[in-house]
Model the fold of this input.
Amino acid sequence: MEYLVEMCGVSHKFDVMLYDDIAMRLKPTQSLAILGASGSGKSTILNHLSTLLPPQKGQINLAHLHDIYSLSEKQLLHLRQKILGIIFQTHYLFRGFNVMQNLQIAELIAHTQIDMEMLEEFGIAHTLKQQIGELSGGQQQRLSIARVLTKQPKILLADEPTGNLDKDTAMSIMSYLLSYVKKHEAALVLATHDKEIAELCTHIVLLENKTLNQIK
Ligand SMILES: Nc1ncnc2c1ncn2[C@@H]1O[C@H](COP(=O)(O)OP(=O)(O)OP(=O)(O)O)[C@@H](O)[C@H]1O
Ligand SMILES: [Mg+2]
Done:
C-alpha cells in the first residue's frame, strides 16, 4: 500500500543538532504520536512535514507528491489547500468574522461543505453567529480544529491540538480526530506531552538522544 506520509534520512540542527537521520512512514488510517522532552524538536518535525521548514538533510514525501521541497508552486498550493490539515498551537481565526464565516473560508478553499454533525460533536454548533472574540479559548481551539477538518484533508498535522482543553473535551476531540482519520483513510501526525493522548494513536515514537524510537 502506498504511504501517505514518508520521511527519510532527515537531519536538522539550529544551534545544536536536534536529530540525525530519522525516518517515519504512515499508511492511510494510521496515526502517530511523537513524544519527547520540551525542546527535543517535535514541533520542528511537524514544521518539516507542513511545508514550512525544509530539513537540512533528507526527504519528505506526502500523498502522491514526491520530495515536497522540490515541488512547483502549483503543486505546493495543491498540497497546502487540499491535502494538508495543519492544527497548530496558535489558532489563526479571523477575528473580524463570525464563526460561520470562519468555517466558510475553509469551504471556499477546498470546495467542501461544513459538516454540521461535527460542529454538534465539538459543542460549537450554537455559536455560528458569534464573533470570535465572544468565544472562550477552548471554543476557539475547537473551532480552529473544525475549520481544518472542513477542508477534508488527507494528512492531519497536529501540534498539541488539545493543549488548552479540559481532559474530557481533549479526549473527545482526539477520538473525533481518530475516527475522522479512519473514515477518510487519512493519516495523523501528532506532537504531544500527554501519554494518555498518545496511547489513543496506532503508533507512538519517542524523540530522544537525537533519534526517533518506536515505542508502539
Ligand atoms: N526557528 C528557530 N530558530 C532557532 N532555533 C529554533 C527555531 N525553532 C526551534 N528552535 C530550537 O529548536 C529546539 C526544538 O524546538 P521545538 O519547538 O521543535 O521543540 P518541541 O519538542 O516542540 O518543544 P515543546 O515540547 O516545548 O513544544 C529548541 O531548542 C528551540 O529553541
Ligand atoms: Mg512544540
